[in-house]
Design a protein that fits this description.
alpha/beta, Arginase, Chain A, 8-stranded parallel sheet, globular, binds manganese (II) ion
């Protein structure tokens, strides 16, 4: 099936403790991602300065929400135009915007999320120790947070039992409870090692049947020895080969309706090695989707 891709910028880093991810879209566009995606329609975004007034447990709230709201609107435009969205963050708070659009467009009950990340990002503003909103996006999408973290028309855009976190290895104690209550599925890198990946995919793929699937790929899922241009360097991560295998398997189902990549910081990528690795993954995604 011929797909028309939409490439959407989600320029925010103040949902996280470090700056720089708001330039990931520029780096990827500058290196030819729109052409790689067959002449993708581009949806750039204004880069807002981090707001200086906010509640103590919701850092830079207004800026973070403005970006997610703008992303939701652009994503709905892309979906209504029949385009396949590829979202470039930004920190992971932008998943609130993606999931608001996807949950509204497809209906929360029809949406599954494959979340490739070192973190679970399912703290609420009550359980978060840092107040960084990039650790709350899944809780917000599941409707567990305060109204200030509601992006669009509806509060619940994802049902926890349709959430699959792959590569999670830095999870806060309260998050384990939330994951269990929500019925979400967690696969640690340890569980995905060796034959574990094949076993996990043999559970995951049938569970996705009948759903529209959003892939949210945080580069911090990768082991720092393979990819290091990001804010958190956590050992014992996934290999690029494992991420390729996951993407190939999930995209190969033909059910994937959107893809996002977050937390890449080009200012840490002095030689462009990680940019090249990302372009390889986008090439793989394009080619795999073309076969479905
Ligand atoms: Mn994340």
């Amino acid at each position: 099936m011929a797909r028309h891709f939409a490439l959407l910028e989600a320029a925010v880093s103040c949902g996280s403790p470090t700056r720089g991810t708001e330039f990931a879209y520029d780096a990827l566009v500058g290196t030819g991602l729109p052409a790689l995606l067959g002449g993708a329609a581009c949806y750039p975004m204004e880069k807002l300065p981090p707001c200086t007034q906010y509640p103590p447990h919701l850092l830079h709230l207004d800026t973070v929400m403005a970006v997610s709201r703008a992303l939701r609107a652009n994503l709905l435009t892309a979906l209504e135009g029949g385009q396949f969205p590829v979202v470039i963050g930004g920190d992971h708070s932008i998943a609130m915007g993606s999931l608001a659009a996807l949950g509204e467009f497809y209906g929360a009950e029809n949406l599954a999320v494959v979340y490739i990340d070192a973190h679970a990002d399912i703290n609420t503003e009550q359980t978060s120790v840092t107040g960084c909103i990039h650790g709350m996006d899944l809780a917000a999408a599941c409707g567990l947070c305060c109204d200030a973290l509601t992006v669009g028309r509806q509060k619940v855009n994802l049902l926890g039992h349709n959430l699959y976190i792959l590569g999670g290895r830095s999870i806060d104690p309260p998050e384990y409870g939330i994951l269990a209550e929500q019925g979400a599925h967690l696969y640690t890198p340890e569980q995905l090692a060796g034959d574990g990946l094949e076993g996990a995919l043999s559970q995951l793929l049938p569970a996705l049947a009948g759903k529209r699937v959003h892939i949210s790929f945080d580069v911090d899922s990768l082991d720092p020895s393979q990819f290091s241009s990001t804010g958190y360097l956590l050992p014992n991560g996934l290999t690029l080969a494992q991420v390729r295998a996951i993407l190939e398997a999930v995209l190969g189902t033909g059910q994937v309706c959107s893809f996002e990549c977050v937390e890449y910081n080009p200012s840490l990528d002095r030689e462009g090695k990680d940019l090249a690795a990302l372009l390889d993954l986008f090439r793989l995604a394009r080619d795999t989707l073309a076969g479905t």
